Amino acid sequence: MKKLSEILYHLKNNPEFRRINTQETIHKFIELLPPKMKKGVKFAYIRQQIFFFVLTHPVYKMEFEYNKSLINDLLKQSNIANVQEIRFFVTNKIEKKEQEKQAINESYKERSYGIFANKITDKKLHDKFEEIRAIIKNS
Asked: Which long-range contacts (CB under 8 A, 24 or more apart) does 28-37 make?
């Protein structure tokens, strides 16, 4: 029986799975970028000998255009094959995370009025229920 490391090694070195190696190399390249540039990269890919960076904001596009020579130098050092040109563009799709944050920040209207009978005999629990009632009435 083969070990997992042997199977992964075989997959990485098999020419049929070249895309796995390319994505790993791209990810390592993005990690080489300075932190302020790395933060703006949504993802990257290589198509027809062009290295595309998909960025999150137009400000990052200007930053990448300004530091294009730095990126070219890093490309030469990282040995990414067959890349002749670099392009940057900003995606126009909003991430789901941002939409979820906005939904969480929206407050909701309390539908209860705090009218309920508190028949608990334990003093601590009785007090907790009364605190909950006060919170409901205040909101």
From this structure: 28/78, 29/74, 29/75, 29/78, 29/80, 32/74, 32/77, 32/78, 33/71, 33/74, 34/67, 34/70, 36/63, 37/63, 37/64, 37/67
Residue 45 bridge partners (DSSP):
52
Contact 91, 53 (CB under 8 A): no
Number of domains in the chain: 2
Residues 59 and 113 in one domain: no
Q: Is 41 helix (H, G, I), strand (E, B) or coil?
A: strand
Give yes or no: residues 26 and 88 share one domain: yes
Contact assessment for residue 44 and residue 64, using Cβ atoms and an 8 Å cutoff: no
pLDDT at 105 over 70: no
pLDDT in tens, 34-56: 888 889 999 888 888 888 999 98
Is the same domain home to 8 and 61?
yes
